[in-house]
């Protein structure tokens, strides 16, 4: 078992612990090393190895600028899924409407210019820093106490049982963050979680069900959706999502889904088989593929709204503080950049840095609140009539997008400044990259 080393506190060599090796923590570590090349950074990860599976994610808003600053845009594009757009289809597979990618980074449709699997993106962010940080698997934060006199955090680890001292503890440990619960004096991590009424089973079907670079989406009544996305691997696979979208009034179904999630994949898969047994299109092939898949992952889509993003020398980053369906990955990238930038701007005052970070991120998160929830409820009606109304809107949108009028509209929208919301970030004084 690797020992968790410690260096003395110094403005030029901050000693930082990051809980979680995902996108938020890796981006933060990248920029902290740019600000302080001698920083002592330890990343602990609860899993036994890097989690390289996961659903497709995208990059939008200020996060697009940040990956360009990092010099990683080209590599991210090389690893994108190749998805060209999204077709909504009927039970017989015939198209209702097709929404293509825009070819722009400032105005994007459901298919982003940066459609990439979560695991691939996490690896790209981790690769530049992994030789410069201490990465420890099978480890997590069991407890911590802040030393107000020394302005440090004493952290006790779950596996090694060691207690070490850090200048800063960064909670990048996801929407169920126990660190968040402790700094907010909350007995349950779910107290800051907002249920969006969306439950999803993600998995890979070892068969090409699409024969196309366009994703396909089929809806049936009672908020059921089958969403298939292309896989760039040459072996012929399909990335599948089985989605259940519940209304706020449908508490009984949400309870059943939550119980199945808590019991594990087998229980959840049985429930999916029950719910989708009479669903149209490729539902039966997808259910069969789910049973043969080796990477089934089931999760609710939730939002986290923490009333605070830091207490003392403990700070929440990414989903731990502000998970948001539809833009959560972009907020995680933006948060990592801003947190490191504020530590650079305030090298002798971590308290000021954390206050500035919170002051920038909280309003930005609120401005993006509800986007994913509204979209999911609109795109997934519960009734035959609701689906028919949605389809009528989609047909108009599809016709506009595929015409020259659609391109003209996007040009006008961009010229008017009606683009994706970006965070007004300070011009951080990043040191020049050597070499």
From TrEMBL:
Domain of life: Eukaryota
Domain FAD-binding: start-end pairs: 15-337
Record bears the keyword Membrane: yes
Pfam families given in the database record: FAD_binding_3 (PF01494)
Annotated GO MF terms: FAD binding; oxidoreductase activity
TM annotation in the entry: 16-33, 392-418
InterPro entries named among the record's database cross-references: FAD-bd (IPR002938), FAD/NAD-bd_sf (IPR036188), FAD_aromatic-hydroxylase (IPR051704)
Gene3D superfamilies registered for this protein in UniProt: 3.30.9.30, FAD/NAD(P)-binding domain
UniProtKB keywords: FAD, Flavoprotein, Membrane, Oxidoreductase, Transmembrane, Transmembrane helix
Name used for this protein in its record: FAD-binding domain-containing protein
């Amino acid at each position: 078992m690797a020992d968790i080393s410690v260096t003395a506190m110094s403005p030029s060599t901050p000693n930082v612990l990051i809980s979680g090796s995902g996108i938020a923590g890796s981006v933060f570590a990248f920029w902290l090393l740019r600000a302080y090349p001698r920083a002592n950074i330890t990343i602990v990860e609860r899993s036994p190895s890097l989690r390289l599976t996961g659903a497709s994610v995208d990059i939008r808003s200020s996060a697009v600028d940040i990956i360009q600053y990092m010099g990683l845009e080209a590599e991210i594009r090389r690893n994108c899924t190749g998805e060209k757009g999204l077709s909504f289809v009927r039970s017989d597979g015939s198209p209702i409407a097709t929404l293509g990618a825009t070819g722009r980074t400032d105005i994007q449709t459901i298919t982003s210019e940066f459609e990439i699997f979560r695991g691939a993106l996490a690896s790209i962010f981790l690769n530049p820093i992994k030789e410069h940080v201490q990465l420890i698997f099978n480890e997590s934060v069991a407890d911590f106490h802040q030393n107000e006199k020394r302005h440090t955090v004493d952290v006790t680890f779950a596996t090694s049982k060691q207690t070490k001292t850090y200048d800063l503890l960064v909670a990048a440990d996801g929407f169920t963050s126990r660190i968040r619960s402790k700094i907010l004096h909350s007995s349950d991590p779910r107290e800051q979680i907002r249920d969006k009424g969306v439950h999803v089973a993600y998995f890979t079907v070892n068969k090409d069900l699409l024969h196309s670079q366009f994703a396909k989406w089929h809806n049936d009544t009672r908020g059921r959706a089958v969403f298939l996305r292309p896989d760039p691997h040459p072996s012929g696979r399909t990335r599948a999502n089985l989605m259940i979208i519940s209304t706020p009034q449908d508490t009984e179904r949400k309870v059943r889904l939550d119980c199945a999630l808590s019991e594990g994949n087998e229980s959840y898969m049985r429930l999916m088989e029950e719910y989708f047994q009479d669903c149209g299109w490729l539902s039966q092939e997808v259910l069969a593929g789910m049973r043969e898949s080796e990477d089934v992952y089931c999760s609710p889509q939730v939002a986290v709204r923490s009333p605070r993003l830091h207490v003392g020398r403990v700070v929440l980053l990414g989903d731990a503080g502000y998970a948001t369906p539809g833009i959560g990955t972009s907020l995680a990238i933006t948060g990592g950049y801003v947190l490191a930038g504020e530590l650079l701007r305030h090298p002798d005052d971590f308290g000021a840095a954390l206050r500035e970070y919170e002051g920038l991120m909280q309003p930005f998160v609120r401005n993006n609140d509800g986007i994913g929830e509204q979209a999911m409820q609109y795109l997934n009606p519960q009734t035959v009539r609701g689906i028919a109304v949605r389809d009528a809107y989609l047909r108009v949108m599809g016709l506009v997008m595929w015409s020259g009028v659609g391109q003209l509209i996007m040009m006008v929208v961009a010229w008017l400044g009606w683009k994706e919301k970006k965070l007004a970030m300070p011009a951080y004084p990043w040191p020049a990259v050597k070499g």
